[in-house]
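We close this part of the discussion by returning to an individual protein. The sequence in question and its structure tokens are set out directly beneath this paragraph:
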Amino acid sequence: MIFESIRLENFGVYGGVNEADLMPVGRKPVVLLGGMNGGGKTTLLDALLLVLYGSKAKVSNRTGRMAYDNYLRECIHRGGDAGEGSSIVLRFRRMMEGQLHYFELQRRWREGLRRIEETVHVSRDGEPDPILTEHWDEVVEAYLPVSISNLFFFDGEQIKELAEGSNAAQILGTAIRSLLGLDLVDRLEGDLKTFERRKKSDLLDAEAAKKLKQAEQDLQEFDRQLEKFALERGRLTNEAGRLARDAKAKEDRFKAEGGDLFVKRKELERELQQLESAKAEAEAGLREIASGPLPLRLVENLLDEVEVQVRRDGEIRQNRILVDALIERDEQLLKELKLAELDAVALKKVRQALDQDRSKRQQNANLEPILDADPHLGPYIAHLQQRVLLRAYEASRAGVARIRQLEEKIARIESELGRVPEADAIARYQTDMDAARKAHVEIMAEIEAMDVRMEALKRQRDEATRQLERFGEKDHVARIAEDDRQRMLKHSKRVRETLDRFRTKVIARHVANMEALMLESFQQLLRKTDLVHGLKIHPKTFEVTLQDRRGTVLPFDRLSAGERQLLATAMLWGLARASGRPIPTVIDTPLGRLDSTHRSHLVERYFPQASHQVLLLSTDEEIVDGYHQKLRPAVARHYLLDHDEKAGRTTMKPGYFEK
């Protein structure tokens, strides 16, 4: 058998239509599907089991005595239409009578007027097959009995239980009996015990018969109450879901009406007060700057003129002093030139040049100073403009920008405060929200209390069952009055003994092959040829014994936790190989509890060879990084189960976890 594809419509967390191609490619048997916890991995495994086996499927979330109709109702996607319902379509191929046939199995259900309406349709080679449709339960049970489905469809929790050893013998025994068809023998033995108990009850005295009848009635009453509680719990669970949605809607309405702003009102008022204080502080700083030399920037052109005039007045004073000194200098110079007998023409030209220079300077010296200020006033004005006023101006610009920024924040806070509803206006919505939350908390407490009562009732039922089994064990043979009843009891016991011997011999006949396949699988996974050389299964207790090289019993304590999990995996692998059935292997959360070394063993040595088709459902902490790279040569397809928490739905799409 090869799974070609699966199509889910509004099933569990999968909203809408989701379809995945599951076909292996060449020598790549693995289809790797990644998803976060709660993202739909186990739901996908449940979908495969449900579409194949219906009410007999060993799914993960159908616990206790939950009615099948209630389970199907819970499987309809929360956001979907219950009237439209859900469906699972599995396409697969398998050989029949030497020919390859293609099948399409569809299981659909919807909420009807009174109950869940379920339909199953089977097509073969593209044509509807009414015979397969009508007898599908018998067909799948003949090819892949539900009792051995856990050899091919399992999760990490099953590996953990088998590895820890407390229930290993029970789990292994159930698998081997189912694989060999001995579950039918077990059911026959149970029916014989029931037959014997009824025959014994017919021979009891009136008082004992009355007590036996009362015990049977008590047991029936416990069953009835448990079923009633299961139905009531289902109703409460649905109601809890409705109340949770109602509480969410009331919270959304409260927020839409400004509830969040109402709750944050005091915080907004404190922030507004802080912003106004900061603004007042910034304005005070700006006023302090304005009280200094900053206003002089308004008359910068006048300051420039003053600086020029101060420089001119200085030149006038300098020329007045210089003119008197030049007269004496020129006279002395001319005398020296005459004594040197300078040419008269040249001497005349020198005199004219000196006269012109003095005349020009005399004109400037005759001007009156306008300001008559201190000569240091000019440099002071230059320093004032280039340093003092520039710094004051930059500080004032920063202060103005700070005030504008604070004013914008104040305006935003005031706008939000303006939208804060009054206490009277928001009170009704807050009351509705609080009431909805309280109702949801109360019903969850009611569900928890009902779970406690159901657990107590289950314990009482178990005790009643044990008491019923003990009933009438004494003196039955002596009190049997009729030979035919004694004969029936005797032969029934003989049949049970024969069945027990038959079971033991059948197991002993086939267990050697299973032991060899398990040991071979374990050695292939572990590759420690000097550690385990023998593996034995007790044909009655199904306890597994390991042997070392010398044939000595090897205690399980000698194996590490990872090696014990590899042994558990090898057991399932060996049993699957012993079945002789070419069935795909589906593993949910395959590496959850293994260390890095043993994870590598499974990735490299088991997954690529577990079957001709292997579906692996991995979290983002399992087959990633190096393990993903090691497995990639065997991977035909990748899918990512992308869960949208806000929308409450998972979408199946090609791809895988990003590095």
Notes: The mean pLDDT is 82. The longest helix spans residues 206-256. The radius of gyration is 49 Å. DSSP finds 18 helices and 15 strands in the chain.
